[in-house]
Amino acid sequence: MSPIVLMSTPMTSVSALAPASPVVTAAGTSASAFPWLTLIGAIPLLGALLLFALPGRAQVGRALALGFSLLAFVVSVVAATRFDPGSTAQFQLGERLEWIPQFGVSYSLGVDGMGIAMIVMSTIIVPVCVLAGWHDVPEGGRRRNVYFAWMLLLEAMIIGVFASTDVFLFYVFFEAMLVPVYFLIGSYGGPQRHAAATKFLLVSLAGGLVMLAAVIGVYVLGPGGPDGFLVERLTGLSFDPLVERLLFVGFFLAFAIKAPMWPVHTWLPQAASQATPATSTLLVGILDKVGTFGMIRFCLQMFPEASRWATPVVIVLALVSIVFGAAVAIGQDDMLRLIAYTSISHFGFIVLGIFAFTHVAGAGSVLYMVNHGFSTAAMFLMAGMLAQRRGSVRISDYGGWQRVTPVLAGCFLVTGLATLSLPGMGSFVSEFLVMLGTFQRYPWAAAVSSLGIILAAIYILLWYQRVMTGPKPEGLERVPDLTGREKWVMAPLIAAFLVLGFYPAPVLDVINPSVSSTLQHAGVTEPRPTNPAPAGAMNGSAK
Amino acid sequence: MSPLALIGPPSATFTPSEVSYLSILPMLIVAGAALIGVLVEAFAPRAARFTAQFAVAMLGLLAAFAVIAMRAPAMIGVTLSGAVVVDGPALVFQGMVLLMGAAGLALMAERFGGRGPDAFTPSGSSVPGSQAEGLAERLGTTTEVFPLTMFALLGMMLFPASGDLLTMFVALEVLSMPLYVLTALARRRRLLSQEAALKYFLLGSFSSAFFLFGAALLYGYAGSLNLGEIGRAVGTVSGRGGLLAAGALLLFVGLLFKVGAVPFHSWTPDVYQGAPTPVTGFMAACTKVAAFGALLRLVYVGLAGSRWDWELVLWIVAGLTMVVGSVLSVSQTDIKRLLAYSSVAHAGFILVGLLAIDRAGIAAVTFYLASYGFATIAAFGIVLLVRARGSEATHISQWAGLGRRAPVLAAGMGLLLMGFAGIPLTSGFTAKFAVFAAAVAHAGAAGVVLTVIGVLSSAVTAYVYFRIVVLMFFSEPGGAPVDVLRPSAGGATAIGVGLLTTVVLGVFPAPLLALAASASQFLW
Asked: Which pLDDT does position B140 carry in this prediction?
C-alpha cells in the first residue's frame, strides 16, 4: 500500500481539522464545581485497596475489579460530556488544593482535549484488560486478587498522570506507577519475568531520576512560590538557552524511554514478551503513551526553544524508530515481541507528528495515541488468546488456524488491518494526518516514514499468513473458538477501530484546541499548506 | 593582635553562669533517668529489674519529649554562658533523637519470651556456650543496656545544642562511649560483635582526637571556642587563615566519621554488622541525627563565613559518599552490611542538602533525617525478627520467598526499601527532593553537579533495594527454613512508626516541612 493510494481515499477528517480560527488564546484553568478527575482516579484506587484487603479465599476479587473499572469508565464518560471543546481555558474540570506549599506543589488537576481523550481511552482499556486477564492467575486466591489490585492501582496512577497540571504531581504519579507495573511483570508472567521486570524498572527509574533533576531545575528557575510547579506558570518562561536545552534533555530522555524510542527501547520487547497479555496491553497501550503525552505537555510547552533546537535529532530518531521497529518486527518469531517492535515503529510516528510542529501532524499524533492504544490492546489480547489455546507464542508453531477458529481469525484480521492502518480503521486517519502534517514541513521525513507503512503491511500480512492460513492442523479439533468472555473483550476494541475510522470528528474536535494551544506555546507558525515550507523554515518562524 | 589579647585577662571574681533550667530540662530528665537506671541496676531485685529499667528509660524519654513538645518556644535561648544553645534546630534535633531513641529502646527491650533482652549477652567476656556463660545467664540479666542507651542519648541531645567546641567534644564522647560498649554486647556471633566494638572504639578515638586538635587550631585562630565567636572572627581576624582552614578540616574529620561519610566510612559496615541489631538501628538513626545536628551548627554558625576555604572538600566528600555508598552496596550479601552501605549513601544525600548553606538546607536536612531515621530503625527491627535456627538470618539469600512465608512483614520491608530508594509517595522521595532542591537553588553549579550525581546514585541504590524485593516476593524460598518471630507490642510499635512515617511523610509532608522550616534559625 503506497502513500498515493492513501491520498486518494475520501477523508472524513479534513473538515474537522480546519478550525475557522486555530488561534485560541488558551490560558488558565477553569475550575470545576465537582471533582470529576479525582473521582475517576479514586474509584480504581479504592478498588485496589479493597482487593488488597480481601481475604485469600474471596472469589469475588476479579468481579469487583471489573465493576470498579467499569464504574471508572462510566464516570470518565460523564466527565467527558462536561468537557467543553470550545472553551478558551487551557485546562478544564480543574481542581486545586494546596499540597506541599514549601516546594511549590499543589494537588492540581485539569485536562485539555488531549488529557480527556487519554483518560477515556484508559478507562476503556482497563476493564477490557481485566476481562482478558480473567484466567491469568489460575490458582486463584489472594494472588489473583492482588493481580487485579495492581491493575487498578496502575489505572489510578495513570489517570493521575494524565490529569496532573502540576509538574511535581505529574512526576509523582509518573514514578509511582513503576511500582504496580514492576509487580505485574515480575510476579505474573513468563519464566524470565524477574529479569524483565528489573530491567524495566531500572531503565525507567534511571530516566525518571534524571528527569527529577530537571524538575528541580525548572522549579528553581521558575516563578517559585506556593504554586510554582503549575504547568501554566511554567509555560512562557525564558531560560538561558543552554539551561533550557539541558532541562529539555532531562525531560525528553525520561519520555523517550517511556515511549519507547530507538535507541532506549530495549526494555520493551523483553517486558512485553514476559508479562501477561493483559499487563502488556496496559504497558504498551496506555502507560507508554505517557511518554508522548509528556513530550507534548511538558517538552513542547515549557521548553519551546529547546524543542525546536532538538527537532532535527528527534525527527531522525523517530524515523529510525519507525523503520527499525517495523523491520525488526518482520523477523520476529515470538508474537509478543513482534507486537512490541510494531509499537516502537508506531511510537516513531507519534513522535514524528509531535515534532513536525504543524497543527495537522499534532492532531494526528494525539489521535494516533488513542488509536494505537486500542489497536495494540487488541493485538496483545489476540496473541494472548492464541497462546492460551496453543500454549506457545512462537509463530512457527501455528498454521491453518482460520479453519480451527474462524471467529478468532476474523478478529485477528481486523486487528491486523487496524495495525497496518487500512482506510476505514481509526489508525489510518491518524497515520495519514501525521504524514500529511509532516509533509507540510519536512517532505523528506514524510517520505521516509512511508517506508514504515509498507513494512507494516509486510509484518502483519506475513504474520496472518503464517498463523492462520495453510492446511488444517492436526489434533486441534477440541480447541474452542472465541468464548463469550473473549468476544466481550474484542467487541469494544473493534468498535473503537471502526468508530474512530469512520467518524473521528468528535474526538478531533476535542483534541484540536489543545493542539493549537500547544503549538502556540511552542511559538511556531503553520507552514502554508499549499506550498509546503522547506525544512529550514522553522528557524525563521520563531516567536 | 595576639590570641591572648582577644581572650583578655582572667577575671578576678568568679561569676556563676546563668542557667535557664527550662531550656536544659529535657537533657536533665534524660540524665536523671540514666542515673536512676544505674541505681536500679545496683539495687533493684533481679526479677523486677527489666521492667523497672525499661519503664524508667521509656518514661524519661517520653517526659523529655513532652517538655519539648509543649514548651518549645519558651525554651529557646543561650544558656550556661554560651556552652549550650537551645534554638529551633537544636530542639527539633533533640525531639527527633528522643523519639527515635524511644523506638530504638523498644526494639532493644524485645525479649521474644525470654527473661532478658534477646539481642544482648549477659556476659560478654565468657565463651559462648561455656559454663561461665550459663552461670551468667542464670544469675544476671542484661538490663545495663538501658542506662547505657540513656547516656548515649544524653550525649546525642547535647551534641546539636553545643554552643562551643568543648561542649561539642564532651557530647561527642558521652554519646560514643556507651555505643562502643553496646556494640560489643551481641548475644550471637559474639566475636564479630567484639571485633566491631574494638574497631569502632579505635577509629572513634582517632576521630575524636582529630576533632580535639581541630578545636585547638580554631581556638588559636579565633581566640575562643564559642562557635558564634568563631563565626564573627572569620571576617575580622586576618593573617591566620591557615589555622582556620586546617582547624575546620580536622573538625570535619571528627564529625564526618560519626555520620559515616566517605572516606571515613570504613567502620560502618563492620560495626553495623557486628553490633546487636537493635543497637545498629539505634545507632544508624540517632547517631546520624545528632552528628548532622552538630555538623549543621558547626557549619552554619561557626564556619559559614569561611566556606570558600573548605567548601570544595565537602563537595568532594558528599559526591564520593553518594557514589561509594551506593556502588558498594550493590555487592553486599549481608542485609546488615547492605543497610550500612545504604546509610553511607544516605549520609551523602544529606550532606548535599547541608551544603546548600541556606535555611532551606537546614529544613531539608531535618526532614531527611526524620524520614530516614524512623525508617531505618524499623528496617533493622524487621531484620531482628527474621531468624534461621535461632540466629538472625542476615544473609540475603535467606530472605528468598519471605513474601510467601510472612506477607505482612515482607510487605513492610518492601515499603521501607521503596522509601530508601526514593519512590514517590514515600518519605524518601520527599526527603531527596528537599535536599536536592535546596542544593540546586542555593549551592550554584556545585549543587547542580551534586544533584546529578545524587540522582544517578539513587538509581544504583534502587537496584539494590529492588533486588531484595525480588528476592522476597518473586523467588522461591531457599533451603534452610526461616522463622519469623512475633514482636512484642513495643517492638511492633517501633516498626509500625517507621512504616507510618514512610507513608505519611511521603503523602502529607507539608506539616513537618513547615515545622522544619520554622525551626531553621540558629542562635549563637
From this structure: 66
Check residue A531 and give its pLDDT. Answer: 46
Mean pLDDT, residues B96-113 taken together: 92
Chain A interface, best mutation among B352, B358, B366, B423, by max A CB count within 10 A: B423
Q: Which domain range does residue B421 map to?
A: 21-122+140-518
How far apart CA A46 and CA A50 sit, in angstroms, is 6
Write the single-letter amino acid at B367.
F
Residue with cell 536545552: A245
CA distance A348 to A449: 9
In a domain, A356, yes or no: yes
DSSP-assigned beta bridge partners for residue B395: B334
Number of domains in chain B: 1
State residue B184 phi and psi, 5-degree precision: -85, 0
Number of Cβ pairs closer than 8 Å across A and B? 87
Helix or strand run (H / E) with residue A348: helix A335-355
Give the model's pLDDT for residue A27.
Answer: 57
Candidates B418, B456, B510; nearest CB to A179:
B418
Residue B484 lies in a domain: yes
Predicted local distance difference test score (pLDDT) of residue B8: 54
- State how far residue A196 is from chain B, nearest Cα, in angstroms: 12
Among candidates B436, B463, B510 on the partner chain, residue whose Cβ is nearest the Cβ of A101: B510
- Best of A107, A205, A274 to disrupt the B interface (most B CBs within 10 Å) is A205
Instruction: Report which of A88, A154, A76 is spatially closest to residue A116, judged by C-alpha positions.
Output: A76
Say which residues have a Cβ less than 8 Å from residue A256's Cβ, sequence separation at least 6.
A207, A264, A291, A317
Lowest pLDDT segment from A326-335, A482-491, B122-131? B122-131
A 337-376 residues with CB below 8 A of B?
none
Asked if residue B39 is part of any domain, the answer here is yes
How many Å lie between the alpha carbon of B117 and the closest alpha carbon of chain A? Answer: 34
Chain A contact for B440, CB < 8 A? yes
pLDDT in tens, A160-209: 999 998 999 999 999 889 889 998 888 887 788 888 888 888 888 888 88
Query: What is chain A's mean pLDDT, rounded?
Result: 82
Of A103, A205, A220, the CB nearest to B459: A205
- Helix, strand, coil percent values for chain A (each to nearest 5): 70, 5, 25
Q: State residue B186 phi and psi, 5-degree precision.
A: -65, 140
Residue A477 belongs to what domain range? 305-543
Are the C-beta atoms of B200 and B180 separated by less than 8 Å? yes
Please tell me which residue, A133 or B299, carries the higher pLDDT value.
B299
Within a domain: B8:
no
pLDDT at B112 over 90: no
Asked if A213 and B429 come within 8 Å (Cβ–Cβ), the reply is: no
pLDDT at A234 over 70: yes
* pLDDT digits 0-9 by tens, B445-475: 888 999 999 999 998 998 899 889 888 888 8
- Burial group, residue A288, by CB count within 10 angstroms (0-12, 13-18, 19+): buried
How many structural domains comprise chain A?
1
State the ipTM, two decimals. 0.86
Please write the tens of the pLDDT for every residue from B200-214.
999 999 999 999 999
Q: Would A368 be classed as within a structural domain? A: yes
Task: For residue range B482-509, list pLDDT tens digits in order.
Answer: 888 888 899 999 999 999 999 999 999 9
Q: Which amino acid is at A278?
A: A
The SS3 assignment for B193 reads helix
Return the C-alpha cell found at A78: 460523564
Residue B515: list chain A partners with CB under 8 A. Answer: none
Note whether A362 and A354 are within 8 A (CB): yes
In a domain, B439, yes or no: yes
CA distance B436 to chain A (A): 7
**Residue B198 burial (10 A CB sphere; 0-12, 13-18, 19+):** middle
Is A69 part of any domain?
no
